[in-house]
Specification:
single chain, about 600 residues, Rossmann fold, Helix Hairpins, 20 helices, about 45% helix, globular
Length: about 600
């Protein structure tokens, strides 16, 4: 193996006496793509700044091979002092770098080089910072949340661009699909220490859960109840993930039902009549149009949102996703056409700006109010500590002021406060921005368990695949089209993803009902997919039988006293079998849905 081009060894760092990093190590070889993961506040960004030479550790060594070039992307880029975006990007070039590449990358990211940096939006600032670090093609790229505030086409372009680069990379991101696509190794920061997995992010969560499960079993020997309470937060996340297969099964059934409901016009009309009587119709839009400054964002749009639907809106930045969302929920009046709300619809909206929080209020006060210890959720009352735990807060944080929370914890608190309000229509506009992986897991669970209807705008492909039953796609020129299933299903049906907008590109008018092209024709199951679909049921049955046998042995109350080592071995085997069963069930469900779609 090649010697590392960058090596951090035995890194210690404390803030205010509290150790953040304890003997942390990070080594990256030429061309290696490493992702850095961990909870909010675990020190990921700090370790990346140490790697970039921007923060000095209390102890440890930083080695970088002589002559190696490094570029660092911060979470909050600063463009002050530059007259134009191009000047900011060119300032990142080293002597001998190709100056033309700065213009090329800016064009690919849809930015005008002569734009005033002071007038850029948050997403445009992010793209300008990306152009600055990508233009030089450095030996090492250190990227802190590179997908934050980027739209789908930009994320997919960035993926493709990074794959083509020969640079070594260290990535911090909450975007699972992005990490799975790019990483070939993982460093996990947990309680100040760094653990390394020499496999990509796709294998990380199972590996991490195995480590946590082993720690839990070992700690169980000392004090089971104490450990369960102290580590509830981390193990609660693991328990949630094990329910994913059941959730996917329900989601796939919902997708299938929705596809059937949306097929013939006659049956849809019959459903609407029944829905109006029973209250199943949530929103109905008829021939709606909305434009700004002569540019159409919504045109000839007709749509029915039924109770229980989970609809994702996707498209490039500026395609009109938020505009359509606000027209549907009545925040904006359409230029023409009509939008009708169903009966007894109560809406909660979590938008891009998020609600402000009182920095001096405690977490409990924010949720329950001053002097109260219960949160009212609909007609039910729940103790604030119990409600906090549902959103991954520990009881000890009840008296913590909001100003002491991390960014991810504040986002989680805003979600908890908003979702405590009574509602049957949940509207989420870019809910995944700035969330860590644990909060994304929680939000996914909230959406999956929500008993009402969901409208969701997101650029997170994995989150869309895990939560929505249908996708509304911005086809251009104000036209929108519905596709059954998640984002990946939309790709299979459409034949392509969201198109990137360039500086010169103007939206072209397209038919309101796009015609299927050869690129959109349905494919057939591959040989491997057919083989898996045929053999997986047998494997699942075998795994279920093995799990039943192991559980029977572990249920013997005298087993642990008689053979502690054997009990631990069987416990590890049970965890491995359950993980394998979950993966097999998820694979079978995915293939079965695909088969039904292709045959239908």
């Amino acid at each position: 193996m090649s010697p590392p081009v960058l090596h951090l060894k035995d890194i210690d760092l404390s803030f205010g006496g509290t150790p953040l990093l304890i003997g942390a190590e990070l080594a990256i070889a030429p061309g290696e793509r490493l992702c850095l993961v961990g909870r909010n506040g675990s020190g990921k960004s700090t370790l990346l700044k140490i790697a970039a030479g921007l923060v000095e550790a209390d102890a440890g060594e930083r080695f970088i091979q002589p002559g190696v070039t490094v570029r660092y992307l911060p979470q909050e880029p600063d463009l002050t002092g530059f007259a134009t975006v191009l000047a900011y990007v060119e300032a990142g070039l080293a002597p001998g770098d190709d100056a033309y590449r700065a213009r090329y990358v800016l064009e690919q990211l849809g930015l005008a080089g002569d734009a005033d940096p002071a007038l850029l939006s948050g997403g445009e600032i992010r793209r300008a910072a990306l152009a600055r670090v990508l233009a030089p093609q450095p030996d090492i790229l250190l990227l802190d949340e590179p997908t934050n505030h980027l739209d789908l086409p930009t994320v997919e372009w960035l993926e493709s661009e990074l794959k083509a680069l020969k640079s070594a990379m260290v990535l911090i991101s909450h975007d699972r699909r992005f990490l799975e696509s790019l990483s070939d190794s993982v460093v996990w920061l947990d309680r100040g220490t760094a653990r390394r997995l020499n496999r990509g992010f796709a294998a990380f969560e199972e590996w991490r859960d195995d480590i946590l499960a082993l720690e839990e079993r070992e700690a169980h020997k000392l004090d089971r109840r104490l450990v369960a309470e102290a580590d509830w937060l981390r193990y609660g996340v693991t328990a949630r993930r094990k329910r994913n297969v059941r959730r996917l099964s329900r989601l796939y059934a919902l997708r299938k039902k929705r596809a059937e409901l949306r097929a013939p016009v006659g049956s849809a009309a019959m459903t609407v009549t029944e829905a109006q009587i029973s209250g199943n119709l949530v929103i109905e839009a008829n021939d709606v149009a909305k434009a700004w400054d002569g540019r159409p964002f919504v045109r000839d749009f007709s749509f029915r949102l039924m109770r229980g639907d989970r609809i994702g809106l996707v498209g490039a930045n500026g395609a009109g996703k938020t505009t359509l969302l606000n027209v549907l929920i009545g925040r904006l009046a359409p230029d023409s056409g009509a939008v009708r709300m169903g009966t007894d619809v109560e809406t909660v909206v979590i938008d891009q700006n998020r609600e402000s929080l009182d920095p001096e209020a405690t977490l409990a006060e924010t949720l329950a109010g001053r002097g109260a210890d219960h949160v009212v959720i609909g007609t039910a009352s729940k103790h604030v500590i119990g409600y906090m735990k549902e959103f991954l807060f520990t009881p000890e944080q009840a008296r913590t002021p909001v100003k002491a929370l991390s960014g991810g914890e504040r986002n989680r608190l805003m979600l908890a406060r908003a979702l405590a309000r009574p509602s049957n229509l949940l509207v989420l506009d870019e809910p995944t921005n700035d969330l860590d992986l644990e909060t994304l897991d929680l939000l996914q669970e909230v959406v999956a368990d929500y008993p009402g209807t969901v409208l969701l705008v997101s650029h997170d492909r994995d989150f869309l695949d895990r939560t929505v039953s249908a996708v509304l796609m911005a086809e251009g020129g104000g036209a929108w089209r519905e596709y059954a299933g998640g984002y990946t299903d939309m790709l299979a049906q459409r034949g392509s993803g969201v198109e990137r907008r360039t500086v010169e590109k103007t939206p072209a008018a397209v038919p309101s009902r796009p015609v299927e092209s050869g690129a959109n024709r349905k494919r057939k199951l591959s040989f491997n997919e057919q083989h898996d679909l045929k053999t997986l049921p047998g494997l699942i049955a075998s795994l279920e039988a093995d799990i039943g046998a192991v559980r029977l042995r572990l249920s013997d109350p005298a087993f642990y006293e008689r053979d502690a080592a054997g009990f631990n071995t069987e416990s590890r085997r049970l965890a491995a079998l359950e993980t394998e069963l979950g993966a097999a069930e998820e694979r079978w469900l995915t293939l079965e849905l695909l088969r039904e779609e292709l045959e239908g």
